[in-house]
Amino acid sequence: MELTKFDGFAICSDTVTGSHGDFMITVLLDHDPDVTPHCFDTYSGSDMEAWADNKWFFGMLKAKVELKVGSQSVLLDDVAAVLGGIEVNKTGNNAHLDVQARALAQDALERGIEIVEQIKTAA
User: Fold this and answer.
1) What is the 8-class DSSP label of residue 3?
2) Please, are residues 32 and 82 in contact by the beta-carbon 8 Å criterion?
3) What 3-state DSSP class applies to 53?
4) Is the distance from CB of 10 to CB of 89 less than 8 angstroms?
5) Mean pLDDT value across the chain
6) N or C: lower Cβ tally within 10 Å for the chain?
7) What pLDDT score does 91 carry?
8) Three-state secondary-structure class, residue 75
9) Which ranges constitute the DSSP H helices of 5-60?
10) Which secondary-structure segment (H or E) carries 100?
11) Which residues of the chain fall below pLDDT 70?
12) CA–CA gap between residue 88 and residue 98 (Å, rounded)
């Protein structure tokens, strides 16, 4: 499954999307309120200062999965996969967000397929 890509400078509420057959996956970037540089021993004083100045932040990726049925989209799971504690805008171009979003999108797709199978079995 191909996904769109995050921008080199990402902000909360940015999304990437992809599809696989009738499944549509959306991965949303949000702020992770539970993680700060103080949670780790690996950040330098300048890293902490840049974080405090909102030059970078810890994000959370949330993947949702929808199924296209006719001309409508049906939400199967609005939080099919989640990953938190991700450094955003700290270094380079945020390419690591795209890698992590692809993995989450695959997990969300598998969850969507599982839900559809459960619906078929129950019918």
Assistant:
1) B
2) no
3) coil
4) yes
5) 95
6) C
7) 83
8) strand
9) 45-52
10) helix 95-122
11) none
12) 11
Distance separating alpha carbons of residues 117 and 112, to the nearest angstrom:
9
Task: Give the rounded distance of the alpha carbon of 10 from its chain centre.
Answer: 12
The model's pTM is 0.93
Burial class for 83, CB neighbours closer than 10 Å (0-12, 13-18, 19+): middle
Q: Which residue carries 């100045």 as its tokens?
A: 53
User: Measuring CA to CA, which residue among 40, 49, 56, 39 is closest to residue 91?
Assistant: 56
Q: 117, exposed or middle or buried, with CB in 10 Å at 0-12, 13-18, 19+?
A: exposed
- At 60-93, the pLDDT tens digits run 999 999 999 999 999 999 999 999 999 999 987 8
In sequence order, the 6+-apart residues with CB closer than 8 A to the CB of 103 are: 83
What residue spans define the domains of the chain?
15-122
Residue 3, φ and ψ in degrees, nearest 5: -115, 150
How far apart, in Å, are the Cα atoms of 68 and each of 26, 49, 65, 71? 13, 46, 10, 7
Helix or strand or coil: residue 5?
A: coil
